[in-house]
Fold:
Amino acid sequence: MSRAISSSRCGGVRLWQPIFLLVIAAGAPTAYAFQFAQPGSQGVVQPNAPIQVTQPQISSDTYKGSQVQEKATAGVLDLSLDDAIARGLKYNLGLILTSQSTLTARGSQLQQLQYLLPTATGKFTEAVEQTNLQALGLRGGGFPAIIGPFGYMDIRGTLKWSLLNISSLQNYLASKHNFTSSQLSVTDARDMVVLTAGNAYLTCIADQGLIEAAKAQVDTSKVSLDQAIANHQAGTAPLLDELRARVDYQTQQQNLISVTNQYEKDKIALARAIGLPLEQKFRLTDQAPFAALDNLNADAAVKEAIANRYDLKAMQEQVTAAEHSRKAATAERYPTITFDGDYGDIGVNPGNSHGTGNATGSIDFPVYEEAKLRGDAKQAQSQLDQKRAQLSDLQGQIGADVRDSILDIQSAAKQVEVARSNTELAKEALSEAQQRYKAGVSDNLAVSQALQSMAQADNQYVSSLYQHNIAKLSLARALGVAANSYKTYVGGK
Structure:
């Protein structure tokens, strides 16, 4: 039902003006018209549906990219772990895209807010018309065949305001929680950047360790090769010993080439993650020595993670937003109160015009839209159930991440100790084999085997040290404190 109040005044009426008004009401063809509306005049409140705003799905691979804004500099850049992470927090693609999604969520919130605010528009119309009355069926009775040309101008402002719309209010509250969720996701993305950049940096450190070990193995195998050549030339060793030693030497050279190539590729991956130009030369200034992280309580750590993880807080906000969207779908059945009004000046010209206005208040309610109303409600309920399931799963995943990281730390710490011991034993076994071969007690088969054992022990030590450091960094991410406390975990407590 509706109640309308309108008023209009006209002056200077000519004989044909009543016919002119009748023609306009009948929708007579317009010769031409000019309309000038204020900016934003198209933003009229439209019937709104339950809001559907979802957070963007950014894969882990996205965090391996970056936005390069700096130019390469001459010379070699010294790059510490702090520098790498600071650059990642500035240029990493994953963080940039997550931050941009916040603007999208903010825009959606403003759009939903408009449904609760009045919409005002301005309009200027200048029209000239000429009409054939006989074509409209007006014949005889003194009606002229053709009227016009005649014209009029209209300057008018309109106002439309939905004074009571529960569905729009609930949709606005949903968009508000979605915006908060997007802000929390940005904070969580910082932890992901630290994990990605830190992992890339630690990988390069591990590569350096492998290169150093490979160089030492090349030098050692070269000593064995020189010794085998000398013994063969002296006639105290067969050619087989020299061939075996040469194979060992070339094998270690191949290994050095391989690990050096991998190091250069991993440096490229690090540069990609932190926004360094690929042509920029740099060297790592930090090392990652073994530092134990003891007294880890899994239950206490899980509770800390539940309290700190921003992706969990973001998901909780999304659940709340889905609850408001469900209420908005229910509220579509409720009546809405709307006000429409306009006021303007209309006439032949500005000097011969009069003010007219119209004000209408209405109460609208659905009479038969059952299929749509039920469909909206089911969609909103489905979204809510999905968000609740994702929240429950994320809570379980956080617990699993924390416990997995603690197990990895404990396992890697033991592997570091065993690998360190194996390295010492391999060096001692190699020294013993070389002395026995030099004394002519045995051939160099034992030397070749000892070289392989030492190479394997060195690789295992470097690998276990990397696994231990990355496990500690992963624990910091699992606890939701990587962005602020990564050095505490990587460096040990």
